[in-house]
Specification:
Helix content: 25-40%
Radius of gyration: 23 Å
Strand content: 15-25%
Largest sheet: 8 strands, mixed
Structural class: alpha+beta
Length: 449
């Protein structure tokens, strides 16, 4: 892969071409954009894609993002040389990278809706998106190194493919949302068929230093058919439907998961301290509510030592959970002995050592008892006696909280493995000591666990 610097004459040619395209009718212009696609099914082997998990990888991604945002006027220069947001501290945020010949040259972050909500919901209404059910993730923090921006999509298209496959296969996401500068929205509309959240442009979006923004969404459940129709008859290298759904790129390294978990938390206490206390002052700037929420997400002492101090919760506020729950997407079935054997299909979406939250295909009464068989991972099955302790009304439901009174070995091993994965050294034993069976599953858990 060759890096190209654009000459003044080349820049003028591109400016002229953009102006000419801009004068065409919208449908004609979008059709031309789709004809210009060039998706290489066999990228240079020096180009690789993965999830940023180490201090060095995250540092390179945040530095690349900082320089891109400063250059575009989307943020003021930070003394750290990094762009780090509170959302990057959450286990529901994943940062992807593109690396060429050992150097990170592209990045984007996928922020699945969590306890902080989503950045763009401060200015865009997501009511219509939520009404369709399914989890929502915001695509944010996209940056490509200047030397690789004009390589005909050589970096952008495989990075977008990585994003698409990760969200559909690993991240339990139905809806993508974006807030982008108006001059970039047509790429998402014409090639990926994002639909605007509202016609009006937001003139001043605080998350990007007051720059204008357009909000848009893509339903990943409907996307494959939309892509198929739009790109039907195109040869593979010009066909995003084929590229996203049929091509396998060995350059992309997906996470290895023994269980059907739906996120890839990477922030250890050391990484949180490095990026949010030492390299930047992000933790100093967050409000009391977010401080309390961070402590509820990371209850172990190793995390508490580096998180910003949290004030005591107001007396009237609902208590924050004090033990971890794990985001899953596991097929399950509930067997009930009542007038013969009845079976109800479930999907477990959130779990702890003593219970779980599940979406059901039928209405279940509280205090109903039965045997639940859960497919926790490939070849990993747990069979539990469980009782419904709460019915939860939320989009995509109905949801039910179940209590497990005597977890079997497979369930205990799954939770233990996830505790070890996420907790700082030595914290697992202390965490179990403060956890007890509880009936406090909530709508919040159903939507953003």
């Amino acid at each position: 892969m060759t890096e190209h610097a654009r000459s003044p004459s080349t820049r003028r040619l591109h400016q002229f071409a953009r102006a000419a395209l801009g004068s065409l009718p919208r449908d004609t212009r979008f059709a031309l954009y789709r004809r210009m696609i060039d998706c290489n099914p066999a990228p240079d082997t020096r180009l690789t894609f993965g999830i940023a998990t180490t201090e060095q990888e995250l540092e390179a991604c945040f530095a690349l993002l900082h320089d891109a945002y400063v250059g575009s006027g989307f943020m003021k220069p930070d003394p750290s040389g990094l762009r780090v947001t509170p959302y990057h501290a959450l286990p529901t945020t994943t940062t992807l990278f593109a690396r060429f010949d050992g150097r990170i040259i592209g990045t984007l972050s996928i922020i699945r809706e969590g306890v902080f909500g989503l950045p763009l919901q401060s200015v865009f209404d997501l009511t219509a998106v939520r009404a369709q059910g399914g989890r929502i993730a915001e695509i944010s923090a996209l940056a490509i190194h200047p030397r690789f921006r004009k390589t005909g999509g050589t970096i952008l298209f495989p990075l977008m493919k990585f994003m698409y496959e990760y969200c559909t296969r690993y991240f339990d996401t139905r809806h993508l949302v974006i807030a982008v500068n108006p001059r970039h929205i047509e790429m998402y509309e014409s090639l990926l068929f994002f639909q605007r959240l509202q016609e009006q442009i937001v003139a001043n979006y605080d998350f990007v230093n007051g720059a204008p923004a357009v909000g848009a969404t893509l339903d990943l459940k409907a996307a494959p058919e939309i892509f198929r129709v739009a790109y039907e008859g195109r040869r593979p290298q010009r066909n995003l439907h084929h590229y996203f759904t049929q091509v396998s790129l060995p350059n992309i390294h997906f996470p290895e998961r023994p269980y059907y978990t739906t996120n890839d938390p990477v922030m250890s206490p050391a990484l949180l301290d490095h990026f949010f206390n030492r390299r930047t002052r992000v933790f100093d700037q967050i409000d009391e509510r977010r401080r309390r929420l961070l402590h509820s997400i990371y209850p172990e002492q190793g995390y508490c030592d580096v998180l910003p101090p949290a004030p005591d919760a107001p007396a009237q506020a609902a208590p924050l959970r004090r033990h971890r729950r794990y985001s899953l997407k596991c097929p399950a079935r509930l067997e009930i002995v009542k007038d013969g054997l009845q079976t109800v299909a479930l999907e477990v979406v959130d779990a702890s050592r003593h219970g779980f939250l599940a979406r059901a295909t039928a209405t279940l009464p509280e205090r109903l008892r039965g045997v639940v068989c859960v497919q926790l991972g490939e070849g990993r099955i747990a069979t539990e006696e469980a009782v419904v302790v709460r019915a939860i009304g939320a989009e995509g439901g109905p949801y039910y909280g179940f209590r497990i009174e005597a977890p079997d070995q497979a369930w205990q091993q799954c939770i233990t493995d996830l505790e070890v994965r996420d907790a700082p050294p030595g914290a697992v034993r202390r965490m179990r000591a403060i956890e007890a069976p509880r009936d406090d599953w909530s709508v919040h858990d159903a939507l953003v666990a």
